[in-house]
Amino acid sequence: MRNTARAAIIAVIGGLLAAVVAACGSSSSGTSSATTANIPLKPGENPVGQTLYGKTKGGALTVYSSEDFEHLDPGESYFVQDYAIDYATQRPLFTYPPNSSNTLVPDLATAMPTTANGGITDGGKTVTVHIQPNVKFSAPVNRAVTSADVAYAIERGANPNVANPYFISYFGASAPTPLVGTTSAKYAGGPIPGIQTPNPTTIVFHLTKPGASFLIQALSMPISMPVPESFAGPLDKKAPTTYGTQDLVATGPYMLKSDSTGKFAGIGYQTGKSATLVRNPNWNASTYSQLYHPPAYLDNININIGGDASVIGQQVLKGTHSVQLDTPAQSVVKLAYQTYPSQITFTTGAGDHYVAVNNSAGPFKNANARKAFWAALDRNAIVKARGGPLVAQPMTHFIYPGLNGFQQSGGYPGPQVDYNKNPNGDMTVATKYMKAAGYSSGKYSGNATVQIVGANNGNDPAIIQIVNNALTGLGFKTHVSEVDQSVMYAKYCGVPKQEIDACPTVGWVRDFADPLTLLYVPFYGPSIVPTNNSNWGQVNDPQINAAMQQAALVNDPNQRAQAWANVDKMLVDQAVAAPEEFDNQPNIESKDVAGVNQLWDIGQWDFMFSSLK
Amino acid sequence: MSVGSELLVDSESTVDSIEVVGDDVTARSPTELFWRRFRADRVAMISAIFIIVLIIVAIAAPLVVKILGLPGPNVQDPNALDAFGSPTGPSGAHPFGVDTLGRDILSRVIYGARVSLLVGIVGTLIATLAGTVIGLLAGFYRGWTDTVAMRVVDVFLSFPVLVLGLGIGAACSVRGCLGGVITPGIVTVIFIIAILSFTYIARIVRGQVLSLREKEFVDASRALGASNRRIVFKEILPNLVAPLIVYSSLLIPTNILLEAALSFLGVGIQPPTASWGQMIADATPIFNTAWWYMVFPGAALLLTVLAFNLVGDGLLDALNPRGTRS
Q1: What is the three-class DSSP state of A282?
Q2: Which residues of B touch A492 (CB under 8 A)?
Q3: What pTM does this model have?
Q4: Which of A24, A451, A452, A581 to mutate to test the interface with B (most CBs of B within 10 A)?
Q5: Would A102 disulfide with which of A309, A366, A491, A513, CB 3.0-4.6 Å?
Q6: CA nearest A487 in B: which residue?
Q7: Residues of B in contact with A32 (CB under 8 A)
Q8: What is the largest distance, in Å, between two alpha-carbon atoms of chain B?
């Protein structure tokens, strides 16, 4: 009896296994059919040329996002996900229309400053901006926006309680063309001498160097979205500020649902659960220039936060009135491309990923060792691991597609140096450079263990293993650690004293349409800081630093693109990092949604231009 | 005196069979009796054969993989992925399909057996050794030795092992802890398994020893002037062999599952080394589109654990037919 029972258990389990295998086996043929190297986009999958105006007004859009937002205060936001709310609820001085990746237009400003209209003077060291007079803050402020609100928004970026992550790099001491008064190490917030507001609709920026064109582009970032000091000032005295975590006012077409005091926490936003955007009753559609006027078709935007990406992706594809805000799961992209081609778009120029290798210590201090690693790395395997050619292309240099300077620095093939030629990885070339690095056998013969720290989410673990494979192939002994992405940046890759040798899952997205934003922060030596460091490879080459300083001062667009392309070439010549892939961003929507992608950013949905069909 | 007969001959319980060979009744040793009973349990025998084959396959993994014409467990082949970067299913070249890096799953399942068996068996051996020593000392000497030993066991039993594992994984993954002594990996997994498992063995051994030390044969030995050492090693310890074998054999599958759980949580075996638990963890997000990635390592884990459990049951029946399990 006893043995019979056990035999029955075995039989049942065996049967179950066989059933699972048999049941699942019937679908396997469909999953392994496509093996082509490149996949053409189908009609509707390329968002370039998308319709912006004349669409259906009204209705509510449901937005799914497996990821939460980080900061809803425009002074703190530096995450693409946050930008979707920032740009729908606030107005920067300048912005990019969603269908343009490079053309800046006035938003809160009345016109683009030029030398001809008197907006750029003093040889490019002074920029004067006039702002729209009848833009109003939402309740409880309920008054017109003034230039002082813009000045305060920028100066609070240096307030330690706000700690804007890019203020110092684009406006402050580390900026290529800092604002007057910010270069002192003692400056920590408060009025900036280089910003003056002679009247309520005029703001004047004084730079220490002639960098007008760069400043104007930087003023498209959320830091230029006006913040009323009378309302936010008391909140900014708290550490950290509660502006953006408890209370917030809006200037854009939408606002986070709030009570009459401006409090939105628990009303229009619940951490990890939801965010609700409603129309801003104080928004006036006539307060825009001819160049840019968002239609704001939707009445409500209801954002559901959390959930498995592969599940919410299917909800969007098979459901109605919905989009996914963050990146869809690999399986969902495949499903959408094969079955719902009109409901997915792919935006090129959505960022890049590379292996940050330690240029200042360890085996990769040697440039030839870095070149060997570059040569050995199988970038096509990384493209496959990211989801194939629909979502990635092998990276060949550091200015990515869609940015000025991309073609000048080699386009997709990139510089024709031998270690860059074969994206499948070339061990012959790698061996040559290992020998040049002093390892006569062509393999690493030192005692060091290469510390690899990468993120453990999504397909990053697969990338880490591809990188590890290349390094072990070169003879390195490695120690691989997979941690949460935020931990990777905050505790390891962003902390130079940790001396991590390789960070295989770091990536960069431009801040605006200037190649400087790709190269300056991650590769400029003086930008290295003890914590929250974004120069992960601790690249500090005096010649490269000098070339960046010079390129930052070039104002002519073509000359500027060439100057930064030259910097890019220097970075490739020194192999300061090992490139992985240029990213394309997939975005999915329901069949009854006419979504519009922000092509200037990573292509996420623009709530001001998206509508229901 | 026959110590074995006390365990192996049961006058009260049912007798499975009475074998009469001619006119002679042959006396059988305890080992022979055990072997006869175990052999009669066909499920346990099949399970034991499965385990032996698995051990051989694990030891000879490189050879087996070569004979089967499979790539090595860490050979990445992006061409084995489809155009969307998704793993492809079972095929002639890859009978169990490939994973997200194009690595052959059959090859990794074979190599994964090494980790599971190594951790399961070595961890159990260490736990058994430690548990036996502590249980013996506690049960034999009683008094403060017993109190201290059992409170130590209670403390270890109170350890939230998975939480401890997660903590080690989070805190020690990059530079290690205690100067790099503790890092996620096979040694840590064996350590965690040992400190968890020895407690059960220690309690069982203590209970057995408390009973055995009061038996007549121990009294007789003591009356003859035997030292404590002799009593422990010559009188008591031999009587613990049978229960130790049974409980150890039942601990092995538990520990294999624990290793899989720790690897699933990222604390155990570190990639690229193949581990069934880690393969299952990696397969979880893509189960809908790559079922083979979870099913095959899952089946290997299930069958191995089942086999060890069934062998353990068989050993229990063969060594202790008086047991109440039915």
Answers
A1: coil
A2: 174
A3: 0.84
A4: A24
A5: A513
A6: B170
A7: 82, 88-89, 91
A8: 81
pLDDT, tens digit, 9 for 90 and up, residues A491-505: 999 999 999 999 999
Say what the pLDDT of residue B92 is: 94
Helix (H, G, I), strand (E, B) or coil at B154: helix
Q: Please give the span between the terminal C-alpha atoms of chain B, in angstroms, as a whole number.
A: 29
Q: Which two tokens stand for residue A482?
A: 């997979």
Strand partners, A588: A344
Q: So what's the pLDDT on residue B185?
A: 83
How far is the alpha carbon of A78 from chain B, nearest alpha carbon, in Å? Answer: 26
At residue A54, the pLDDT reads 94
Q: Is A5's pLDDT higher than 90?
A: no
The pLDDT assigned to B173 comes to 78
Q: Decide if B174 contacts A464 (C-beta within 8 A).
A: no
Residue of B46, B77, B174 to mutate, testing the A interface (most A Cβ within 10 Å of its Cβ)? B174
At A541, the amino acid letter reads D
Long-range contacts of range A271-275, CB-CB < 8 Å, 24 or more positions apart?
A271/A68, A272/A68, A272/A305, A272/A306, A273/A304, A273/A305, A273/A306, A274/A302, A274/A303, A274/A304, A274/A305, A275/A69, A275/A85, A275/A303, A275/A305
ipTM: 0.81
What residues contact residue A136 under an 8 Å CB cut-off, 6+ apart? Answer: A142, A143, A144, A145, A251, A282, A283, A284
A556 contacts: CB under 8 Å, gap ≥ 6 = none
Dihedral-angle region of residue A190 (phi above 0 means left; psi in -120 to 50 means alpha; beta otherwise): left
Instruction: Give the model's confidence band at B171: pLDDT under 50 very low, under 70 low, under 90 confident, else very high.
Output: confident
- Contact criterion met (CB < 8 Å) for A28 and B292: yes
Residues of A in contact with B289 (CB under 8 A): 31, 331, 334
Instruction: Please report, for residues A169, A210, A520, B196, the alpha-carbon distance to residue A525 in angstroms, rounded to integers and kept in the order given.
Output: 12, 21, 9, 50
| A246 three-class SS | coil
Q: Which chain A residue has its CA at the smallest distance from B166's CA?
A: A483
